[in-house]
Amino acid sequence: MIDVQTLTFFAFSGLLLLSAGGVVFSRHAVSSVMFLILCFLCSTVLWLMLHAEFLGLALLFVYVGAVMTLFLFVVMMLNVKIDATKARLLKYFPFVLVLGGGLVTMLWLALGPDAFSIKKTGVLAFSEHYNNTRAIGEVMYTQFVIPLELTAGILLVAMVAAIALTFRGSQQRRVQDTPKQLMASKANNLRIVSMASEHEGGE
Amino acid sequence: MIGLAHYLVLSSMLFVISFIGIVINRRHLIVMLMCVEMMLLAVNMHFVAVSQYFHDISGQIFVFFILAVAAAESAIGLAILVLLYRCRQTIDVESIDQLKG
Fold it and tell me: What is the ipTM of this complex?
């Protein structure tokens, strides 16, 4: 008898892995972005199942709402064509085999079924008054308050850096140049030309 | 029942898939950035699962900081990408070979 929790876990983890494969193997960058959004949605469900509600919803809002929109915007703005993945897969297949196999072996040795079996770690159990957001907030604003401020600084610097890197100035738009307007004087703009007078109506 | 090992194996598989993605999508910078985001997601899932199963909340604080730094990283990375595209009209990784050393 398989219970609902197990069924949900396996359904969403399968969807997560499939969409991760979609990110890697899809031909167009736009569909890669869409698969990545699906990836984040599935992870949100899995994190909610872990009772990590705050981080699950933060992942949903920050990533799907902001970062993936940024990705989609850049992908559509650049309009770059990708060549077929299959040729590259064949080209790099030895590397994939060696590196991927090495990584899998290493991870298997580090966290195989013996290390974190259900007998050793138990099942996920919380009291019914457990409040994830409260638990995070109690630690974040006391013990981790300096890293929190540093994170705010990092985000500010990132925002300034992103704007400074891509801002091209106002050379394409018609704008007022206020210092130039204030420095305008009669000597610069008015030229008096002396010329012979012309008679009006002279035949 | 779902144990900790389930979550760890799942996020390890996600990590390996995104690692393979970086190796085989060597020509396309945006997909490489997306694979980096997916690797960060896998690591975050490790952190959250271990933190919840061992009842230690600091792992989730760390995930919060990783999310913030990853957002900053992707913003600056995409800005550099846009700049690169403006300069060279391509973002092919193998055409970026002007750095001599």
Answer: 0.91
